């Protein structure tokens, strides 16, 4: 029985540090992936709404039948919202998510991972109600800012929560389920927009907006029945409660040897990290994410840079160029009769390719997927760029370009899409994990926003007018992604989060796939001859956790 200074059963055997898991327990871990729907749906639905006739008339007073607004009509502003308003409506959400993700990292350590996600759902619902009720900019922008906060909470902490509760053998596959839900969210958004775009009443935009509440309600309701993360309770020094939730998560009695041994390892690792990382004030706990210097490969600073830059690189692959600007790009290619249909096809390729990663991320590993995925993407991107530059007006070339764009999406969806989320959930030690994951997620939203803002300047016909040549830019950035993954990404498959911590200390990314765990933290920190973790360790973790 943990707590009260009595040691947990512990082992020096590296193969026995995780309890076996029941099917029900697997399903519980997988449910949290549902949170990805928010992310995808919200990124996807707004571009459709901004182009809806009813919405434009409501917000600008313009009449769609007035010839002045037709293409080449006398009013150059056309039948559209002014650019600054469009960009404000779109980007305010990313601003909200950026700050929401950062705040959520704090909250997750104070009120728990699960509770933070539920709070995120409530904040999101408030934002959605404001958006749905709005018929003026002020309220719409405020609603999107608030909803953005909620998505920031959910998107950062779901990754943290899933990584912490999932069994190590399927952790990659379960977190990839989150990416799968993002892709479904994107698909749902384009279908709903398509369905309501021709409505001549406020249902045109209110239905796609209001529907989002459903995702939040399902997620929050489901989470009420799921347990909190045992690693959160360890961090707060509540070892007894950690044993309870770990038992539920693994489908084993809380006092069984399995649960006691897994918990002992989490506690011993936490104690080890606490000794390495000085604890202190609130500011000190943030500062801890940036300590240790650049030259030390295990340092917190290196890990924070790794997580935030990995998410930046994921955006640099150029994937959102297709999802945000695809329709306009396909229109510019000329010979395409139904750009919307091509947009739908690319979204479907994204959905259908993602599940491949459930298998490959555990079979071949995160590093392998990121290296080969970047190679696949960069080849496709250069082919699209070269074909478009050499022979862009030929319908056969355009068809080939579209085919290669689909293959490019296949590579993204089966590698970098899920891979980036999986890795950020795994590389941080417990004392800085919630903030590290939050910073990495915030970086995803920041770069998402930067790319959305600058891309029109590269491709709009009255600006850079790059056309297919823009794929030279994405291809070159993908070369960076390839080198980055090869040089910096460690292999984390099959290891417990505590073993990842040890692996990052002992080996380099390029040799990491060969690293095998050789001892347990429990054995190193102190095993008694009765086969229990030294009671002082449990007591120390309990004492320090209570003053977090
Ligand atoms: C990215 C998003 C992107 C989506 C596409 C996610 O992993 O972070 O920016 O829109 O994948 O499926």
TrEMBL record:
Keywords: Membrane, Transmembrane, Transmembrane helix, Transport
Family: Belongs to the major facilitator superfamily. Sugar transporter (TC 2.A.1.1) family.
UniProt xrefs under PROSITE patterns: MFS, SUGAR_TRANSPORT_1, SUGAR_TRANSPORT_2
SUPFAM superfamilies: MFS general substrate transporter
Gene Ontology MF, one: carbohydrate:proton symporter activity
Membrane topology term: Multi-pass membrane protein
Membrane-crossing residue ranges in chain numbering: 21-41, 88-108, 115-133, 139-161, 173-195, 207-226, 316-334, 340-361, 368-390, 402-424, 436-459, 471-489
Organism: Cladonia borealis
Cellular localization per UniProt: Membrane
Keyword Transmembrane helix listed: yes
Highest taxon of the lineage: Eukaryota
Sequence ranges assigned to domain Major facilitator superfamily (MFS) profile in this UniProt record: 28-493
Name this protein carries in UniProt: Major facilitator superfamily (MFS) profile domain-containing protein
GO cellular component terms attached to this protein's record: membrane
